[in-house]
Structure formats: structure tokens, C-alpha cells
Specification:
112 residues, alpha+beta, 14% helix
Length: 112
């Protein structure tokens, strides 16, 4: 019997050392890796959150594909400020968007 247990121990695979990727996915389920937020010099700026407060009726662009919307800034130094921005694609009141900067504001579209 002692010989059988020695053979079984020899056949069993040895557990591998946990690598960096295994440490990141240790607390997650279904093999999804969780990435840590970078800090310091490696931090990546994602922009400012803003909520669409209103959408203008006038459109611009060659084919009328550009709409103008009023955006209320939700975070950052301009929190609470409402600015006007141009958008292409579907947009409606109440949408949450991420703006790259809040210093720029678009001029109002005037129908001729």
C-alpha cells in the first residue's frame, strides 16, 4: 500500500506558483481579471462626467447630423456648470456622458 501512495503522489500534478496574473484574478469569478486603477505618474485621465440637460431642435453639419445639447458637469472644478456641446449620433435628455474637457464651449446654432 505504501508503494501505491508513493506512485499516486508522483503522478499528481504539483500546484504551480501563483503568478502576477493569478494574483489579480484570485478574487474574481469565472476567470475575469480585475485591473487595478493606476495611480501617480501612470494614472490615465478619463475626462469629466456630464449629464444631458436639454437637446436643441436646430441641427448643423452637411447632412444635419450634428445636434447641440446642454450638458451639466457632474464632477471636477466646473461641477454644476452647464455648457453647450455638439454631438453626432443618438442623444437624449438624461444621458450621462464623459467629456474630455470642460473649458471648451460651442456656439449656439442659429437657424437662417
Amino acid at each position: 500500500m505504501a508503494a501505491e501512495t508513493a506512485k499516486e503522489k508522483a503522478i499528481e500534478p504539483k500546484p504551480a506558483k501563483p503568478s502576477d496574473s493569478a494574483k489579480e484574478s484570485a478574487g474574481t469569478s469565472q476567470g475575469v481579471t480585475q485591473q487595478k486603477a493606476p495611480s501617480g505618474e501612470n494614472a490615465r485621465f478619463e475626462g469629466f462626467l456630464a449629464e444631458i440637460v436639454g437637446v436643441e431642435k436646430n441641427r448643423t453639419g452637411i447632412y444635419g447630423e450634428i445636434k447641440q445639447a446642454l450638458c451639466k458637469i457632474m464632477e471636477g472644478r466646473d461641477k454644476g456648470r452647464v455648457i453647450r456641446r455638439n454631438f453626432s449620433g443618438r442623444i437624449k435628455k438624461g444621458d450621462i456622458i464623459r467629456l474630455p474637457d470642460t473649458s471648451r464651449e460651442d456656439k449656439r446654432i442659429v437657424a437662417r
